[in-house]
């Protein structure tokens, strides 16, 4: 859904301005199968930066808000390498995520997921870290990697805190923020992305985690933070 909001905003942004950051608030539950309206507003367009807001509306109610910043490249006096480190095992060493009826979300049928760090969701793990590799199963032109593709694969991966529970529990993402480390470099349609997540705290029914996403050749693509509520 966030990837679709990004697509809606692209029509308002000059092509030379790349997505730099997103901030998402999941205000209300979405009814699967019911129509959605994507209402986009340009908040400000400066010389090099465009700020936009996209409200996702269902049955007259705002269910999600997405704030985005697009910016053109500019001269910089120095460059600083990312502090995050690429530590995901090779794809061949990772375990395919099984699809379990009434446990695995239906949307994951569209993704090829290989688990390589930590334990799978609802296994009572003791490690706060999870990660692995992910890509769309569809290798057609419609699934060609882009910023929207990257947002979709980030959105698809389960929050790392779910691995700490010893059985299924209802959860809901409250907020999600993403920062793109660099403008997207178009890649083949079968491109894998590596993702690493770490739960930072879990208290009073809320969990927060951080994430980093990497290209197959080890380049940092994006950083993310997520807050979820646990109902049980």
TrEMBL record:
This is Acyl-CoA thioesterase II. Gene3D superfamilies: Acyl-CoA thioesterase, double hotdog domain (2.40.160.210). SUPFAM superfamilies: Thioesterase/thiol ester dehydrase-isomerase. InterPro entries: ACOT8-like_C (IPR049450), Acyl-CoA_hotdog (IPR042171), HotDog_dom_sf (IPR029069), TesB_ACOT8-like_N (IPR049449). Residues 92-230 form the Acyl-CoA thioesterase-like C-terminal domain. It comes from Pseudomonas syringae pv. aptata. The lineage of its organism: Bacteria, Pseudomonadati, Pseudomonadota, Gammaproteobacteria, Pseudomonadales. It comes from the Bacteria. Residues 1-71 form the Acyl-CoA thioesterase-like N-terminal HotDog domain.
